Amino acid sequence: MTWNIDYYETEGGKRPAREFIQGLPVKLEAKAFLDIGLLEQFGTQLTMPYSRYIKDGLFELRIQQAGSKVRIFYFFVFGKNIILTNGFLKKTKKTPPHEINKALRYKSDYERRNKL
Questions:
Q1: According to the 3-state scheme, what is the secondary structure of 37-50?
Q2: Percent of the chain, pLDDT > 70?
Q3: By three-state DSSP, how is residue 115 classified?
Q4: Number of other CB atoms surrounding residue 108 within 10 Å
Q5: Following DSSP, what letter does each residue of 6-32 receive, concatenated?
Q6: Nearest 5°: phi and psi at 22?
Q7: How far is Cα 1 from Cα 29, in angstroms, rounded to an integer?
Q8: Which residue, 87, 111, 95, 98, is CA-closest to 21?
Q9: What is the distance in angstroms between the CA of the first residue and the CA of the last residue of the chain?
Q10: Is the peptide bond before 97 cis (omega within 30 degrees of 0)?
Q11: pLDDT higher than 80, residue 43
């Protein structure tokens, strides 16, 4: 049974995760969609090295392609739904706190607007 993948959308109509993925080099974009497919297939069962829990219900999809490291944040909502919030190219050993905080703000905004 597969999960439903959706993109967080701001009140202004932007989809940060989708826009980020579409801005990646072609091979990295293809790898991102491949790994999103794994997330769609396995959902909560997807673990390291593909997925890691961050905090407060937030997870990161860990994508690697030819030395490049991409992270896409996501969270689960009722039923079998996964919401992708935002992503970034990882250039340091630790995930930058401002990227995590941005994802948590998007998650909170989604929950507020959808009355979760």
A1: HHHHHHHHHCCCCC
A2: 99
A3: coil
A4: 12
A5: EE---TTS--HHHHHHHTS-HHHHHHH
A6: -70, -20
A7: 25
A8: 87
A9: 24
A10: no
A11: yes
pTM of the model: 0.94
Query: Do the strands 58-65 and 68-77 form a parallel or antiparallel pair, or are they unpaired?
Result: antiparallel
pLDDT digits (tens, 9 = 90+) for 64-113: 988 899 999 999 999 899 999 999 999 888 899 999 999 999 999 999 99
Compute the distance between CA of residue 56 and CA of residue 107 in angstroms, rounded to an integer. Answer: 10
For residue 1, the model assigns a pLDDT of 64
Cα–Cα distance measured from residue 18 to residue 84, given in angstroms and rounded to the nearest whole number = 8
| Cα gap 100→102, rounded to integer Å | 5
- For residues 115 and 45, the answer to whether their CB atoms sit within 8 Å is no
Structure tokens at 54: 């961050």
